[in-house]
Amino acid sequence: MEVSFSEEIKSLALGEGQIFHGEGILAITKALLQSGVSYVGGYQGAPVSHLLDVMVQAKPYLDELGVHVEACSNEASAAAMLGASIHYPLRGAVTWKSIVGTNVAADALSNLASPGVTGGVLVVVGEDYGEGASVIQERTHAYALKSGMVLLDPRPDLQCMVDTVEHGFALSEASNMPAILELRIRACHVRGSFAARSNRAPKISTRALMQEPAVFNYERLAHPPVTFRHEKLKIEQRLPAARAYIREHKLNEHFTGKHSDLGIVVQGGLYNTLIRTLQQFGLADAFGQTDIPLLVLNVTYPLLPEELSEFCTGKRAVLLVEEGQPEYIEQELATLLRRAGIPTPLHGKDMLSAAGEYSAEIMAGGLEQFLRVYRNELLPAAVPDWLAGNRERRAAIAKDLGQPLPARPPGMCIGCPERPVFSALKLAQQQVGDVHIAGDIGCHALATFEPFSFGHSILGYGMSLASRAGVSPMMNRRVLSVMGDGGFWHNGLLTGVQSALFNGDDAVLLIFKNGYTSATGTQDIISTPGDAAKNDASDKRASVVHTNQTIESTLKGLGVQWLRTVHTYEVENVRKTLVDAFTSDFNGLKVIVAEGECQLERQRRIKPWLASLLQQGKRVERVKYGVDEDVCNGDHACIRLSGCPTLTLKDNPDPLKVDPVATVIDGCVGCGLCGANAHAATLCPSFYRAEVVQNAAWHERLLAGVRRSVLRFLQPA
Predict the structure, then answer these.
(1) Are 543 and 651 in contact, with CB atoms under 8 Å apart?
(2) What is the pTM of this model?
(3) Residue 523 half-sphere exposure, CB side, CA atoms within 13 Å?
(4) For a designed S-S bond to 524, which of 274, 528, 614, 658 qualifies (C-beta 3.0 to 4.6 A apart)?
């Protein structure tokens, strides 16, 4: 894994009254065990990936409790696990990144929500929303509404989050509705403490097996004609039961304030930001004491009509703070107030931004408008000045630059094995012409940025080959689809490869085989090299990806006839293979497997190994690349072809030359891409390769001394 959770795992065993310290997502993990969960599954992906990573690494301890943990191939398979809770009193939890993960799981979730559940079900989704998100800008709320699922949005306080998990299971069982727990990035990483409770070994588990299956009951199937009855049950029984539980256990929180003529209704996940905003106005303190009454919705679906009516009645106005669009809660609250004949003015998206993440500054802008209309005397002069000052500073910076602040997109890691393939693709297109490139989710999606700008579409994880199906028949030149090994196993094998073979499509597929689902944290997959290969000391310097041939075997077994495996760092060979695929007489699916181990994982193996050798005083040799500044002509084609962060510019040491020269800075991992590009593209011969030796043998030191003496003798005075 990207991170070792050996210390965090210890906190999972904390007992009654002991204090847990840590991150929000780890607190959620502990809460699952305190709730007596029987099984946990999911698909990795920030910001909730730590939950599954911790569970996988803590498997020995979970085996003692009888908790089953499954690392699923995609979100659909994770959601399908929850079918265990339809018939049996098993508490189950799954996790993934939303909204893209929930889209993949939607079919299973709909067929789970229709018959309802017996055992409590909790779907923990990372609400990856806002400017810092890595996915499309959509909300999970729609799934709760359409499928009849409870939606929990806890206040980002560890004790509240833990309590919400435990209530989530009980609420799910009381209402027979699956529950979704959405956690924003900041909630996942907020740090704090809570008083732990002892873990509950589930009554039915891998250590306490069921003796007989449930009696067949057609009513528990999501299948016509009973699906119509299920829809009635959602309205007539499940929603009332859920509301009764929420009301009885006071899951939503009401904070009173001295300015009782106003009120703010806020999603639980936005509470911390709202309090920070109110502090700027002098209307709250750092401990959460507020002067304006707040209704914090830790459960955003279903809402309690009587609770909202009571809060809004008699107030001059209410502001609803709801992040994202559409404004589901605002529409429901407006309808509720109208039907109840409550005249209290309701404001929301008319004063706050319609879309985007609600930062403290965004909230402050909305709150300023709200107070200016209803209680202008509460509006401190400093706040409008602060907001105006922020706008003026941004405008001044843009004016000085002559343009808005430049974007700072992410880039591939230093030495990433995927970068040389895109360099080779640039060179191949010089020979065959520009091609349509169907991109995919994963590290390779970073090739959409400069200097490559590759990828005409990204339509889903592992769906690049499927997404070109409507383009390639209309294109005079063959279309390229790019996919990672993680995407291949997630979805690409069936939606892409199987479909292309079945239809006899003339397509080119490039699979990056780096050995891990790297973009989500380098988690293991079925094609990850085995521990024996990774731990083999004699193989520490080399890529170990070739030791696992599962992808190649699968492709051959499925009937792929044109298959080539290339090493990613061999740019010229990759270029020739791409040209061959684009120009081959073979009419059918052509697959290129570009193998090169994820550089992050490779460095995690190499660095400790080299450090141990140095500590023992043994000889260590590493490769370093550089640029001869006397030879470099300042063309910089090497940089435009590579994009490696360690290949950059410096001032030309020759005072008669204006153009800066290329240079390789510290941080280079010695992958050799710069030199391979220079060779493949026939660039200037300014790159050199050197071996840096530490703890050299006596004869190597003697030889180095002789060489230095000769060089000094040959140099002009």
Answers:
(1) no
(2) 0.90
(3) 27
(4) 528
